[in-house]
Amino acid sequence: MALVVKEVRAKSILSRSGIEGISYTVNPYTGCGHSCLYCYATFMKRYTGHTEPWGEFVDAKVNAPLLLAKQLSRAERGSVILSSVTDPYQPVEAKYKLTRGCLIALSDCDFPVEILTKSPLVLRDTDVIVKCGRIEVGFTITTEDDRVRRIFEPLAPSIEQRIRALQTLHEKGIRTFVFIGPVLPMHPDVLADRIRPYVRRVMIDSMNYPSKTRAVYRTHGLSRWLDPGYVGSIRDALQRLLDTVPVEVC
Ligand code: SF4
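^ thats the input. predicted complex w/ iron/sulfur cluster below
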């Protein structure tokens, strides 16, 4: 599958957030090459002219860093999430460095930042991250089992790569968290043991759009994970196993 990448100019990049506790969202890309089967952001396709399926196109907002610096100079100070409807460190970021540019703009004006990604490419920007006054870096880690990851997140970095990157940032003294969302088939004890040493907090969310993946669960003999009661028991187990780590259930 060839990824179609288009360079576009955004009219606005700093958007008011609907997420509790977050003032603004910044999305340097529309579309996402990680191609997760359960992706909640597919509705963004309607804002593009793309006919390709979700996961096969990305619009790179090439003016994002300059536009963000301009918008930040007029904005009321508030927390920013990078990003809410795309992965800011998806593969095209290695070439375009738009997330890096946005991060520099945010560090220059000292807005609190929360990064959420599935990619160790975030490590490239450690030099900028350490200069940000208030910053947290979160990794989405939905299972500890890379066979499950390959089914649901076929083009995203492996679980091992994410955990290693999480550990690296933690060891550099950067505040880190893990977003377990959606809860995919897993061994909660193994996942809790792997992430517990490296996080300040954990957020857990269930599969919010099961219709997107119902057939995939069935094909792979994972149907019991479609039962909200069963997934709820795994969520409770995770909370218990994470012990002293603060857990927020979304
Ligand atoms: S990484 Fe996030 S935005 Fe990208 S496809 Fe996966 S769920 Fe969607």
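The mean pLDDT is 95.
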